[in-house]
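Researcher: Good morning. I'm working through a list of sequences from a screen, and I'd like to move beyond sequence-only analysis. For each chain I'm collecting a predicted structure so we can compare shapes side by side. This is the next one on the list. No need for commentary yet; just the structure.
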Amino acid sequence: MASAVPVRGVLAAMLIVLSAPVFAQGYPSRPIRFVIPYPAGGGTDVTARPIAQKLTERWGQTVVVDSRPGASGMIGADIVAKSAPDGYTVLVSASSEMSMNVVLFKKMPYDPVHDFRPVTLVSSTPPILLAHPSLPVKSVQELVALARARPGSLVYGSIGTGTPQHFAGELMKSTLKLDIAHVPYKGASPVLIDLLGGHVPIALVAATVALPHVKAGKLRALAVTSAQRSSVMPDVPTIAETVIPGFDIVQWFAVWVPAKTPREIVDRLNEEIVRIVKSADFKQRMFEAATEAIGGTAEQLGALQKTEIDKYRRIAAAAGITPE
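Model: Good morning. Structure tokens for this chain:
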């Protein structure tokens, strides 16, 4: 009888090992919810909906996009962090709630590193530095010269405190020692309205919403904040090639699940979503939205997140940004 205990233990271990792939093969067996932590119509929503549509077609299970905005993306992210780790509640995030908020807030309802498992990076888009045509500058170099000639007289708008646009502006200010005040807005629409009306002379916004106004000649594109030029705007130079070598800030979008989600489910989601992201149709849709489709492994996304957190901590320290 003494030998029965280890035998039962071996059988139990074998059962666990064998059941994991079976669980993955049976997934999904019911509808899936994609939680986006921002209002419908924004960059996260534009990213999530075509993926949800394709997964619905491939799997025969409805993938619902559920918008849960608020608290700098933390409300939606927290919902997923505290959901059952079974692959049926998935976060489609922007970079703010997964890499920047940890620098900006003393207390968060979730830990962006330990409460999630990365699935895949989906896409990225650079903020773009814009000027109203009435401002006498046609390049970022001319803007820097004007700011130095008229310290304290310029302001720049962004889509809000703690966003990639805000961090890009503060990094530029601290590196070049510019005296330019920041005016945060609650989203892209209000800052664009004031920029188009000439109420703020310069602003940093997502290329997605800025590009139509640039093409129409209503706004002047001075630079993008990514390390390389955007394939969507190849004629617009980067800040890195003009005034600050190595400058690189982008807005990225990615997919995450709760931390204890089985690896087999993560792999299944990664395989299917990356296949969609790499498709010509999805790439074209992202290109039209001034966004570059990327894709990749879960490990690559996890490494990116940690690198970004370290980067924004350095930027915050240099710019004097303290957590609330």
